[in-house]
Design brief:
77% helix, two-stranded parallel sheet, 254 residues, mainly alpha, 13 helices
């Protein structure tokens, strides 16, 4: 009988992956973390090269476009240096987000079936798209609405002078929260693949989901303005409907 060496190698590789010891798993995890950290460092270097553009033309721009413009101040001697370092690290994490996802999936790859491993690249691309879509939506829709509310709220006798670290903490946390919320279709994909989530269940509780989405929008939206809440609730409801379609396509067959 003639055997295919490549098939034998692949079969041995699968057997070895299935029989990895606890220490081998730790070693694999260590290298995945190192590669993820290396990606963040490379992304941070790129962010550092364009740090002036990122600060002046991106992150500080929403504050200057409010009416009246928000006043920012630094109250620490090393405040701006620390802030720049935080922005560089955060920018590096954003730029290396596809690499972080890829390293995560490569770590759990031995636990996946052969027909499931072929979806890794697609999952990484789709998850990255969802996350970045949430970040972009937050930057162009949520942040301007919230900052405009903050700039006009309260007594005119009180100047709204915001500490620069508090401002950036709000900007980054809002963009990060929106990016994670936009991962809803990806979460639906996972739950449907393992048989936990069914499209029938999501359709049945669609009305309940509308109420839940409005509550989530009210919590995540800093201002009590109905318009800003609806600006977030609308995309969330669209994501819910997209999740139903994804769940229907990829649901686990009995």
């Amino acid at each position: 009988m003639i055997t295919d060496p490549e098939n034998n190698i692949e079969g041995n590789k699968t057997d070895n992956e299935a029989e990895m010891t606890f220490l081998e798993h730790l070693e694999e995890l260590r290298w995945r973390i190192i590669k993820s950290a290396a990606g963040i460092i490379i992304g941070g270097i790129i962010a550092g090269i364009f740090i002036n553009y990122i600060m002046d033309d991106l992150l500080l721009l929403p504050a200057t476009r409010t009416v009246p413009p928000l006043k920012l101040q630094n109250i620490k001697p090393f405040g701006q240096f620390t802030l720049y370092m935080e922005v560089i690290i955060f920018g590096g994490a954003i730029l290396s987000f596809p690499n972080i996802l890829f390293q995560f999936w490569k770590f759990i790859e031995p636990a996946l079936k052969p027909n499931e491993r072929k979806y890794i690249s697609s999952i990484v691309l789709f998850s990255t798209f969802c996350f970045l879509s949430g970040v972009v939506f937050s930057y162009f829709v949520l942040l301007p609405t919230a900052l405009n509310f903050f700039s006009t709220f309260g007594s005119s006798a009180i100047d709204n002078i915001i500490a620069i670290d508090e401002y950036f903490s709000f900007i980054i946390s809002t963009m990060l929260a929106a990016g994670l919320v936009f991962e809803l279709p990806m979460v639906s994909f996972f739950l449907s693949k393992i048989g936990i989530l069914k499209p029938e269940f999501m359709r049945k509780y669609r009305k309940h989901s509308i109420i839940l989405i409005l509550l989530i929008a009210g919590i995540l939206t800093p201002s009590p303005d109905v318009t800003s809440q609806l600006l977030l609730a609308g995309p969330l409801f669209i994501l819910y409907e997209i999740s139903i379609i994804i769940c229907k396509i990829f649901q686990k067959k009995s």
